[in-house]
Structure formats: C-alpha cells, structure tokens
Amino acid sequence: MGVSELEESSLLLDEKLLQFMDQLELLEEKRATLNSLIEQGWFSMSKARYSMGNKQVSALQYASEIEPLVHVHTRTLDSGDLGFCTERLSQSKESGKDVTSVEDIGPQEEGVRRRNKPKKNIKEKEANDKASGEKASEVIPEKQIDQNPQQDPLKWFGILVPQSLKQAQSSFKQVIELSAEIATLQTAVLNTRQELKNNMKDKHILQEKTSAALLDKVSD
C-alpha cells in the first residue's frame, strides 16, 4: 500500500510540475507581448506628438470630467482560483441622449411654425412665445448635463487625429485586456506553486513512512 501511495504521489507531483512549467511558459509569452504592445503604444504616441506638436498631445487636452470606459472585475474560476476580467462600457448611451434631445426640440419647432400662421392673434403668439421660452429653459439645462457622455478620448485631441494616435489607442486597449489575463495567470501560477510545495511535503512524508516500514521488515 505504501508503495502504491508513493507512486500516486509521484504521478500527481509530476502532473503539477508539468502544469506549473506550462503556466510559466504561457506567462512569459504574455509578458513579452505586453511589453511589445507598450513599446508600440509609446512609439505611436511620440510620432503623434511629433506630427501634431507637444502642446497638442498632452494633459492639457484632457476633458474636465473623466469617467473610466473600462472596469476591472474579479471572479472565482471553476478551479477555485481568482480571475480578473475587464468590462468595456458601450457608448450607446450617447446616441440615446442625442435622440431624447432631438425629440424634446421637435415640438418646439412645430410650435414656432404654428405661431407664424396668419389666423392666430397677437395674444396667442405671446402665449406660444412664453410656452416655447419655458420649454427652451427646461431643455437647455438637460443638454448641458448630458454634454459629458462617455466619449472616445481621441476627440479630446481634435476631430482629424493622425493615424499614429489611433494606433497608440489600439495598443493601449490591448494592454488593458492583456494585463487582466496576465494577472489571472500569475494568480494561477502562485497557487500551482503552493500546491507543488504541499505535494512535495506529502511525498517526503510517504517516503519516510515507506523507508521506516522496510527497515522494520528487514530487522524482523
């Protein structure tokens, strides 16, 4: 029984060791890709600053209110390890806000057209003017509040930005996604390393028990 348990422990230790080596190899590849993407991003950023000017690509162009477009969440995987995942917020809210503002403005234009009809008297015109003025005062604050949607940060630097700046944004987007994968993989590597140490201790204990049992048989 002792020999079979020792063999099972050795096989389990070999499997964990192979898994640990595979995880380390994959982690090294992802880290190399991450470093390459960071270098490409900064190189593209420097090209954009060279073409547009240092003052045109700096912190001075940042928006007054900045909200994150990507959130990082943690979750527990099926294996029990802690995983990291990214969630990129869609920009559909911006289009929805534009639609509501257009719908609010529509009736105002109809009211303006109706008051130009010759059949209406001066009092009706004044009433329509007051009503349209009240509606305009209600709509303007809403537009001011909704003017800070989560938009593409490239718009901070102008409408027609160079291709190098778009390439820099694409590289850094991939960096964010890859960073979450590397964090998840690094957590798995640490857990596998701890399991490998525990299996080594168990194997040493079994070896001591097996050797002690053999010595007892020889002495008998």
Automatic annotation (TrEMBL):
It holds the Pfam family Vma22_CCDC115. One of its GO terms (molecular function) is unfolded protein binding. GO terms for biological process: vacuolar proton-transporting V-type ATPase complex assembly. Residues 93-149 are annotated as: Disordered. Residues 121-145 have a biased composition (Basic and acidic residues). PANTHER family: COILED-COIL DOMAIN-CONTAINING PROTEIN 115. This is Vacuolar ATPase assembly protein VMA22. The lineage of its organism: Eukaryota, Metazoa, Chordata, Craniata, Vertebrata.
